[in-house]
């Protein structure tokens, strides 16, 4: 069982011992730390407001009651969205003029996990500095709760799915009429979470026929909820059996997006962002950003449209910051996370679906044909376990020295860009391992490159 505290929030497995797992006491303590930080940060404001939503995990209702009433005990006003999605909460925070937001979700982790993801007043994930302050408050347990006459209030607002969809449909690049005219049929796998509520609402507004697969928001995940090919056999088969135009897959909190082509083959989660960026850049010139472990295909597509591509450190908050710094018009992560600043600075599968379908309807080709229009790269993701005594930073420094003649980036581990492929070496913050990501023109080449670097690191480490 596990409890992980970080600058972006707290996550862990439900039950067990306090401090070792995500128990009710841990949830209350961390919610109190966040509320205390908000009161300190916005002490000049007469009232503090927080938007809260959750995915459909079995533990979600319990966690929501604990977190909501902890904030009420601090004298904070709560706008409760109930069952929601991560991007819906992110959209709601600024629209509610709230000081912050909390999403109760462990994203793609299995059902025994849950988490508190924390947002600032813009509906964006907290900075490292702000997250560190909250961790200090939680550690010190320096809370000052409100007296009985100054308790907070709870307001229920179940309109935000519709509001979020309205905001998406109002975007100039979302072409409702073209999508409706295409008469698309889609199979949706929402892994029995809140995507099963929100996405059918969006697709119906777009005139798309929806075949629901695992769309009951009961938190009983029918397969591993991470939207990877090896977990998605059912939808791949159903797309073919039902003669659908495509399949749509999301994770439990609906910030990651993957597509299945009409032939039952995965479009490739790395290519979700590539295709959507191709569409956006074809309408409006600009730059793009993804993290360092994402496919080189985004760079290729960006340069095809005359734009500039930049790679950030891994992590949504890092991608967002670089997008702001470079005024990127589209960006995200290779795990299927789409960030479209025209709507908001957060990964959003719903806006990704609307933009992708607009692209598909305009091109008037099948999903498999669309995929063939992009360069084919293949990725390998491996890791090497080291002993705690080994100096991981020293190993990465040695690798930087050995490959100093290549195009190297060291803002997040070591990334070495070779002419035809690349390798990214990242150390784990929680265990003595080095993660090794590679990309090449074939799967065999990507795997071989990763194995070669594993061998080289092993020799340096003496293992």
From TrEMBL:
<dbReference type="GO" id="GO:0004615">
    <property type="term" value="F:phosphomannomutase activity"/>
</dbReference>
<dbReference type="InterPro" id="IPR036900">
    <property type="entry name" value="A-D-PHexomutase_C_sf"/>
</dbReference>
<dbReference type="GO" id="GO:0000287">
    <property type="term" value="F:magnesium ion binding"/>
</dbReference>
<keyword id="KW-0597">Phosphoprotein</keyword>
<protein>
    <submittedName>
        <fullName>Phosphoglucosamine mutase</fullName>
    </submittedName>
</protein>
<dbReference type="GO" id="GO:0005975">
    <property type="term" value="P:carbohydrate metabolic process"/>
</dbReference>
<feature type="domain" description="Alpha-D-phosphohexomutase alpha/beta/alpha">
    <location>
        <begin position="164"/>
        <end position="264"/>
    </location>
</feature>
<dbReference type="InterPro" id="IPR005846">
    <property type="entry name" value="A-D-PHexomutase_a/b/a-III"/>
</dbReference>
<dbReference type="InterPro" id="IPR005843">
    <property type="entry name" value="A-D-PHexomutase_C"/>
</dbReference>
<dbReference type="InterPro" id="IPR005845">
    <property type="entry name" value="A-D-PHexomutase_a/b/a-II"/>
</dbReference>
<keyword id="KW-0460">Magnesium</keyword>
<dbReference type="InterPro" id="IPR016055">
    <property type="entry name" value="A-D-PHexomutase_a/b/a-I/II/III"/>
</dbReference>
<dbReference type="GO" id="GO:0006048">
    <property type="term" value="P:UDP-N-acetylglucosamine biosynthetic process"/>
</dbReference>
<keyword id="KW-0479">Metal-binding</keyword>
<dbReference type="InterPro" id="IPR050060">
    <property type="entry name" value="Phosphoglucosamine_mutase"/>
</dbReference>
<feature type="domain" description="Alpha-D-phosphohexomutase C-terminal">
    <location>
        <begin position="397"/>
        <end position="455"/>
    </location>
</feature>
<dbReference type="GO" id="GO:0008966">
    <property type="term" value="F:phosphoglucosamine mutase activity"/>
</dbReference>
<comment type="similarity">
    <text>Belongs to the phosphohexose mutase family.</text>
</comment>
<dbReference type="InterPro" id="IPR005844">
    <property type="entry name" value="A-D-PHexomutase_a/b/a-I"/>
</dbReference>
<dbReference type="InterPro" id="IPR005841">
    <property type="entry name" value="Alpha-D-phosphohexomutase_SF"/>
</dbReference>
<keyword id="KW-0413">Isomerase</keyword>
<dbReference type="Pfam" id="PF02879">
    <property type="entry name" value="PGM_PMM_II"/>
</dbReference>
<dbReference type="Pfam" id="PF02878">
    <property type="entry name" value="PGM_PMM_I"/>
</dbReference>
<dbReference type="GO" id="GO:0005829">
    <property type="term" value="C:cytosol"/>
</dbReference>
<dbReference type="Pfam" id="PF02880">
    <property type="entry name" value="PGM_PMM_III"/>
</dbReference>
<dbReference type="InterPro" id="IPR016066">
    <property type="entry name" value="A-D-PHexomutase_CS"/>
</dbReference>
<dbReference type="InterPro" id="IPR024086">
    <property type="entry name" value="GlmM_arc-type"/>
</dbReference>
<feature type="domain" description="Alpha-D-phosphohexomutase alpha/beta/alpha">
    <location>
        <begin position="8"/>
        <end position="143"/>
    </location>
</feature>
<dbReference type="Pfam" id="PF00408">
    <property type="entry name" value="PGM_PMM_IV"/>
</dbReference>
<feature type="domain" description="Alpha-D-phosphohexomutase alpha/beta/alpha">
    <location>
        <begin position="271"/>
        <end position="375"/>
    </location>
</feature>
<dbReference type="GO" id="GO:0009252">
    <property type="term" value="P:peptidoglycan biosynthetic process"/>
</dbReference>
């Amino acid at each position: 069982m596990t409890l992980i505290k970080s600058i972006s929030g707290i996550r862990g497995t439900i039950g067990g011992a306090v401090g070792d797992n995500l128990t009710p006491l841990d949830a209350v303590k961390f919610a109190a730390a966040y509320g205390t930080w908000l009161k300190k940060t916005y002490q000049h404001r007469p009232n503090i407001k927080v938007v809260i939503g959750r995915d459909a995990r079995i533990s979600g209702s319990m966690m929501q009651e604990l977190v909501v009433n902890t904030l009420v005990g601090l004298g904070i006003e709560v706008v409760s969205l109930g069952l929601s999605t991560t991007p819906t909460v992110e959209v709601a925070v600024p629209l509610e003029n709230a000081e912050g937001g909390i999403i109760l979700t462990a994203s793609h982790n299995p059902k025994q996990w849950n988490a508190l993801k924390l947002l600032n007043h813009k509906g964006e994930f907290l900075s490292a500095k702000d997250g560190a302050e909250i961790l200090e408050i939680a550690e010190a347990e320096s809370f000052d709760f409100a007296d009985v006459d100054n308790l907070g209030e709870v307001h229920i607002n179940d309109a935000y799915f519709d509001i979020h969809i309205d905001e998406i449909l109002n975007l100039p690049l979302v072409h409702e009429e073209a999508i409706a005219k295409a008469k698309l049929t889609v199979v949706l796998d929402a892994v029995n979470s809140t995507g099963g509520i929100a996405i059918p609402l969006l697709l119906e507004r777009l005139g798309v026929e929806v075949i629901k697969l695992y769309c009951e928001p009961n938190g009983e995940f029918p397969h591993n909820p991470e939207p990877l090919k090896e977990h998605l056999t059912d939808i791949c088969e159903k797309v073919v059996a039902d003669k659908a135009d495509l399949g749509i897959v999301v994770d439990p909190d609906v910030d990651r997006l993957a597509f299945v082509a009409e032939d039952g083959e995965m479009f490739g989660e790395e290519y979700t962002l590539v295709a959507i960026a191709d569409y956006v850049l074809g309408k409006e010139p600009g730059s793009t950003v993804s993290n360092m472990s994402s496919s080189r295909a985004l760079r290729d597509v960006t340069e095809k449209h005359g734009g500039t591509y930049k790679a950030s450190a891994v992590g949504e908050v890092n991608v967002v910051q670089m997008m702001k710094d470079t005024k990127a018009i589209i960006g995200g992560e290779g795990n299927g996370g789409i960030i479209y600043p025209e709507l908001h600075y957060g990964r959003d599968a719903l806006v990704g679906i609307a933009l992708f379908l607009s692209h598909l309807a305009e091109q008037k080709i099948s999903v498999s044909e669309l995929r063939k229009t992009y360069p084919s790269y293949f990725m390998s993701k491996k890791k090497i376990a080291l002993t705690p005594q080994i100096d991981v930073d020293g190993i990465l420094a040695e690798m930087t020295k050995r490959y100093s003649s290549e195009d190297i980036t060291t803002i997040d581990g070591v990334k070495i860009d070779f002419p035809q492929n690349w390798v990214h070496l990242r150390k784990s913050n929680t265990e003595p391992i080095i993660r090794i990501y590679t990309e090449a023109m074939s799967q065999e080449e990507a795997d071989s490159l990763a194995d070669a670097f594993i061998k080289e690191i092993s020799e340096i480490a003496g293992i």
